[in-house]
Design brief:
The complex is a heterodimer. By secondary structure, chain A is an alpha/beta fold. Chain A is built from 13 helices and 20 strands. Chain A has an eight-stranded parallel beta barrel with strand order 3-4-7-8-9-10-15-16, surrounded by seven helices. A four-stranded antiparallel beta sheet of chain A has the order 5-6-14-11, with no helix packed on it. In chain B, the strands form five sheets. A five-stranded parallel beta sheet of chain B has the order 3-2-1-4-17, with helices on both faces. In chain B, a hairpin with a 2-residue loop joins strand 11 and strand 12. The chains are: A alpha/beta, B alpha/beta.
C-alpha cells in the first residue's frame, strides 16, 4: 500500500489532497465535514483585515459552462473573500486545528498592500495554531478593483515586497498563490522566491465571462441586468494550470520551489498529473463543489492503486517525474514519425474521423461505400485530430514507424538519430551558422 | 364489473375502466425537455449518418437532434417535416429498432442507440402543441390533381402537391381521413386522437379538398379521374384480407385482425368492446402483434400468436415480439392451421407442426390444438379493387422508383404499390416522391 502522507513546506497531512481556499473552506462546519470525509488539509477561505466585513452580491455569484449531459466543465464566481467577521473565523480555525491536529490547516490572507496591515493580521493567525499562510494574490474579481488579489499578483515587485513583509513577520511557512491572468507565469513565481516564499500555489481563477443571457443582454451571472467578469475554474482550466505548474518547475530560477497544484483537479489522475509536473500536493475546489466531499475517497484509492501498480512507494518520489520531459518545441524530435491506425473491430463507423480530416485537415482518411474508414499513409501527417474526435477510446491510435521504414508521405526513411529544429536545414539560424 | 378475464365466451368489460385506461395509455410516453436534452446529448453527429440512410424518408437525424440539443425543437421539427410531413406519426409507429435506431452507431458501440424515435416525437409535438404549420402554399398553378386514399401515402402526396401550388382533390372510401394511421395501428401507439389531429394540422397547408365515402370502382372510376384531373395518385392501400383456407373458417368468432384493430381505434368506450377469453391470432406480422397485445390489454385470459414458420421469419420485429411476450402473449412458431373446430362458434384451432426446408414448408404430421373462443386472421392483406388496365407486379400496382404506373398520368404509392415494405414511413416517402414527380411532369 503506497504511502500517501504528504509533507509540504514542513506541513504534514495524511494525503496530498487539500481543499483550496474557497466557499467549501469558509467556516468550521464545512471544514469539519471535509476532514470527516478524509481530506488531508484545507486552505481556509481568505481572511481580510479586521473591521466591517466584506459584503457579497445578493444575487447569483456563479456562472457555468456545461458539456454533454450537463456535466459541469467550468465554473466562474464573483464571490469575494470571506464575508464573516475576522474574529469568528480565527476562533473557528483554532477550534478545528485543535480537533484535527493531523490535518493541514493553512489560512489564506488578503489585506491592503501596506506592511502595517500584514503585520497586524499575521500574529492573529499564528495564535490559532494554523500550519501556514497562503497569500491570495490571485482573485481576479472585485478585490482586485481595490488594489488587492490579482492587482498584486500581476506586479512581480509587489509580490516580492509583500512576501518579504510576511516572511519577516511570521514564523509560519508562506505560500504565495499566483494568478494566471498574466502573460508569463515565471515572473511572478520568481518574484515570490526572491521575496522568500516557501512555496507557490497555482492557479487562481481565470478572468472570464461564462455566458450571456440573450434576452436580458447581460453577462451571467446577472445581477439586476448587469454582470461582471468572474474567476473561472474547474476541469476546463486544468490544461492552463498544468502548463503554468510545469513552467515554474522547469524554470532554472524557480526550480525546486515547492508548488501546490490547483486548477480543475477532479480525479486521482488529475492529481497525479499535477504531481508529475512538479506539484508537491494539490488543492481542489470545483470538483468538491460539484459532487461533495466524498470524491476524496476516489482520489485516495485511485492514487494509491496507481502508485502500487507502478511501484512508487511515496508521493515525494513522484513529484516532478515528468518535468524533465517538458521541453521547448525546438527540441522535439522531428525524426519521430507516426501514422494513425484505425482498429476496424473497434470502429463504430460514425465517420467523424473522416469528416474532420476531410473538411478541416489533410484528406488522409478514406471512406468506402460501406463505411469502412482507412488511413491514407501518403497524406497522414500524424496530427492526432482523428484520435481526438473519435468517440471510441483506443479505436484510433498513433503508431510509430520503425527506423528504416519509409514515410509514404515524404518518401524518406525514418532516421534513428534525434533531429530537431535547432539542426534542421530550414532553420534560418542553422543556415546562418553554416555560411 | 360483470365480467372478468375468466368469463367464458366473447364478452365486453373484462377489466375495469381504470385498468383499460392504463393498459391503453402511451406505449412510449413522451420525453420531457430534460429527458430530451439528455437523449440528444448522446448523438455523435455522425458524418453521412447511417441512421439517415436507414430512414425511408431520409430525415436529417443528426441535424434535428443537434437542433434539439441547442434548444431549438421548432427548427428540429422543420428538419423532420421537410422530409416527412407525417413525422409525428412516424415517430410513434415506425419500427425504429429495424430502421434508424438499428443503424445508430451507438447501437454498435453499446447496444443502446440514441432514442431517435422519441426525440422525433419530442420535436414534432412541440410544433403540434404550438398549433403552427410551418409551410406555406406556393402560388396557384391552376393544375388539379386527384389523390385517391387519405392514408399516409395520399396525405404526404397531397401535402407536397399543395405546397407546390396545385389544387388537390383527396378521396377516401372511409368516412374520415388517416387510412391505417386512423384505422390500422394499435391504440397504445397513437393515443389521444393524434391521427386526426395530425391530419387537421397537415390540411392547414390549404388547397386540399376532401371527398370522403368515395371508393374507387363504385362511384369513382379511374377513367373519370384521368379525364377530370391533370394527374392521379393512387394510395388505396390493401383492402382485402387473406383467408386461412382451412376447414371451419366460416364459423362464428373467426375474424380479420384488421377489423378488430379498427373497431378498437374507433371505439369511444373500450369497455364496450367484446373480446374472447382464449384468443388465437394466426400470422407473424405487426398486425398479428397489434391484435394479440390489444386482446390481452382488453382482458383476454390467454392469447397465442401462431406463425407457420420460424421466429426469425416473422415480419414483426424482435422488439414487437418481445413487447407481445411482455404483455403475456405466447408465441408459437412452426405451426400451420389445419382446421377451425367448433359447433357454430369456434372452440379450438388445430395446427400442424412444420419444417421449413429448402423445398418449402412441410407439415410434420404432428398436430396441436389450442382452445379459442375468438380467432384473428392476420396472414396478410392484398390489393382489392385496382382498376383493370393497371399493370400489376406480385399482386400490387407496378410502379417506377418515382411512382409512375403503367398508365400515363397515373402514379401510385404506399401499400398498394409494388416494392416497399408496407410501413407508414415508406408510404410517406412514396407519396412525397410521387408528388415531386407529378410536379415535375405537370408543373
Amino acid at each position: 500500500m503506497a504511502d500517501l502522507t504528504s509533507e509540504f513546506v514542513g506541513i504534514k497531512s495524511p494525503n496530498p489532497f487539500w481543499l483550496a481556499s474557497a466557499p467549501p473552506t469558509d467556516k468550521e462546519y464545512n471544514v469539519r465535514r471535509a476532514f470527516e470525509a478524509g481530506w488531508g488539509g484545507v486552505v481556509w477561505k481568505t481572511l481580510g483585515e479586521a473591521g466591517p466585513p466584506i459584503v457579497n452580491v445578493n444575487g447569483p455569484r456563479y456562472g457555468a459552462v456545461w458539456g454533454a449531459d450537463r456535466r459541469l466543465l467550468g465554473l466562474n464566481n464573483i464571490e469575494l473573500i470571506t464575508d464573516r467577521p475576522l474574529d469568528v473565523n480565527l476562533r473557528e480555525i483554532k477550534t478545528v486545528k485543535r480537533d484535527y491536529p493531523d490535518r493541514a490547516v493553512v489560512v489564506s490572507l488578503m489585506v491592503p498592500c501596506e506592511e502595517a496591515a500584514w503585520k497586524a493580521i499575521l500574529p492573529l493567525v499564528e495564535e490559532t495554531g494554523a500550519d501556514g499562510i497562503e497569500l491570495n494574490f490571485g482573485c481576479p474579481h472585485g478585490m482586485s478593483e481595490r488594489g488587492m488579489g490579482s492587482a498584486v499578483g500581476q506586479v512581480p515587485d509587489y509580490i516580492e515586497m509583500v512576501t518579504r513583509w510576511c516572511k519577516a513577520n511570521t514564523r509560519m511557512p508562506v505560500i504565495v498563490k499566483l494568478t494566471p491572468n498574466i502573460t508569463d507565469i515565471r515572473y511572478p513565481a520568481r518574484a515570490a522566491r526572491k521575496g522568500g516564499a516557501d512555496a507557490v500555489s497555482l492557479i487562481n481563477t481565470v478572468s472570464s465571462i461564462t455566458s450571456v443571457d440573450l434576452d436580458a443582454m447581460s453577462p451571467e451571472p446577472s445581477i439586476d441586468g448587469k454582470g461582471s467578469h468572474g474567476g473561472y475554474c474547474g476541469p476546463a482550466v486544468k490544461p492552463i494550470a498544468l502548463n503554468m505548474v510545469a513552467e515554474i518547475a522547469r524554470d532554472p530560477e524557480t526550480a525546486g520551489l515547492p508548488i501546490s497544484g490547483i486548477g480543475g483537479v477532479t480525479t486521482w489522475r488529475d492529481a497525479a498529473e499535477f504531481i508529475a509536473l512538479g506539484a508537491g500536493n494539490v488543492q481542489v475546489c470545483t470538483a468538491a463543489m460539484t459532487y461533495g466531499f466524498k470524491i476524496v475517497e476516489e482520489m485516495i484509492s485511485g492514487l494509491s492503486q496507481w502508485m502500487d501498480g507502478k511501484g512508487h512507494p511515496d508521493v515525494a518520489g513522484i513529484v516532478g517525474r515528468a518535468v524533465p520531459n517538458v521541453t521547448d518545441w525546438q527540441y522535439l524530435n522531428l525524426n519521430y514519425v507516426t501514422k494513425a491506425r484505425i482498429d476496424q473491430e473497434a470502429c463504430i463507423q460514425c465517420g467523424r474521423c473522416y469528416v474532420a480530416c476531410e473538411d478541416t485537415s489533410h484528406q488522409a482518411i478514406s471512406m468506402s461505400p460501406d463505411r469502412v474508414f482507412e488511413v491514407i499513409d501518403e497524406e497522414c501527417v500524424a496530427c492526432n485530430l482523428c484520435v481526438n474526435v473519435c468517440p471510441v477510446e483506443g479505436c484510433i491510435t498513433m503508431e510509430e514507424l520503425a527506423v528504416g521504414a519509409v514515410d509514404k508521405r515524404t518518401g524518406a526513411e525514418v532516421q534513428a538519430d534525434h533531429g530537431d529544429w535547432t539542426t534542421h536545414p530550414n532553420n534560418p539560424a542553422v543556415r546562418q551558422a553554416a555560411e | 364489473m360483470s365480467n372478468s378475464p375468466f368469463t367464458a365466451g366473447v364478452v365486453p368489460a373484462r377489466l375495469s375502466a381504470e385498468a383499460l385506461a392504463e393498459n391503453f395509455g402511451d406505449l412510449h410516453p413522451p420525453l420531457d425537455p430534460h429527458e430530451a436534452a439528455v437523449a440528444a446529448d448522446r448523438c455523435y453527429f455522425c458524418y453521412d449518418a447511417p441512421c439517415v440512410t436507414a430512414c425511408p424518408t431520409s430525415i436529417d437525424i443528426p441535424l434535428f437532434i443537434r437542433q434539439i440539443a441547442t434548444g431549438m425543437p421548432e427548427a428540429a421539427a422543420r428538419t423532420i417535416f421537410d422530409q416527412n410531413i407525417l413525422g409525428g406519426m412516424c415517430a410513434r409507429v415506425c419500427p425504429t429498432e429495424t430502421l434508424c435506431e438499428e443503424a445508430c452507431v451507438r447501437e454498435a458501440a453499446e447496444g443502446k442507440p440514441v432514442e431517435i424515435g422519441r426525440l422525433q416525437r419530442f420535436a414534432t409535438d412541440v410544433v403540434m402543441a404550438a398549433g403552427t404549420h410551418p409551410y406555406r402554399r406556393g402560388a396557384p398553378t391552376g393544375k388539379r390533381v386527384a389523390v385517391v386514399g387519405a392514408g399516409p401515402a395520399g396525405l404526404a402526396c397531397a401535402h407536397r402537391l399543395a405546397m407546390k401550388g396545385h389544387d388537390v382533390a383527396l378521396f377516401d372510401a372511409r368516412p374520415k381521413p388517416g387510412g391505417l394511421n386512423e384505422f390500422g395501428i394499435a391504440s397504445y401507439k397513437t393515443v389521444g386522437g393524434f391521427a386526426q389531429a395530425e391530419v387537421d394540422w397537415l390540411m392547414r397547408i390549404g388547397g386540399i379538398e376532401t371527398h370522403f365515402g368515395r371508393q374507387l370502382g363504385n362511384d369513382l372510376t379511374l377513367g373519370q379521374l384521368r379525364d377530370g384531373y391533370d394527374a392521379v395518385f393512387l394510395g388505396i392501400g390493401l383492402a382485402g384480407v387473406n383467408a386461412l383456407r382451412v376447414q371451419g373458417e366460416d364459423v362464428k368468432n373467426v375474424l380479420d385482425a384488421v377489423d378488430f384493430i379498427s373497431d378498437l381505434r374507433q371505439a369511444d368506450d373500450l369497455s364496450s368492446l367484446p373480446v374472447g377469453r382464449n384468443i388465437v391470432v394466426i400470422g407473424g406480422g405487426m398486425t398479428a402483434v397489434d391484435a394479440a397485445v390489444q386482446s390481452r390489454l382488453l382482458g383476454a385470459e390467454t392469447v397465442t400468436i401462431v406463425y407457420r414458420r420460424g421466429r426469425d421469419r416473422m415480419s414483426a420485429s424482435r422488439y414487437e415480439q418481445d413487447l407481445a411476450a411482455s404483455k403475456g402473449v405466447r408465441i408459437v412458431t412452426n405451426a400451420q392451421p389445419k382446421a377451425v373446430i367448433g359447433n357454430g362458434s369456434v372452440r379450438e384451432v388445430e395446427f400442424e407442426y412444420t419444417e421449413d426446408t429448402p423445398d418449402g414448408l412441410n407439415g410434420t404430421g404432428e398436430t396441436l390444438r389450442i382452445p379459442a373462443d375468438q380467432v384473428f386472421r392476420a396472414i396478410g392483406q392484398r390489393l382489392e379493387g385496382a382498376p383493370e388496365p393497371l399493370a400489376l407486379e406480385g399482386g400490387k400496382i407496378k410502379v417506377t422508383s418515382s411512382g409512375r404506373t403503367s398508365l400515363q398520368g397515373v402514379w401510385a404509392g404506399g401499400d398498394c404499390a409494388a416494392g416497399g415494405d408496407d410501413l407508414t414511413v415508406t408510404a410517406v416517402a412514396e407519396g412525397r416522391d410521387a408528388a415531386e414527380d407529378i410536379h415535375a411532369e405537370i408543373g
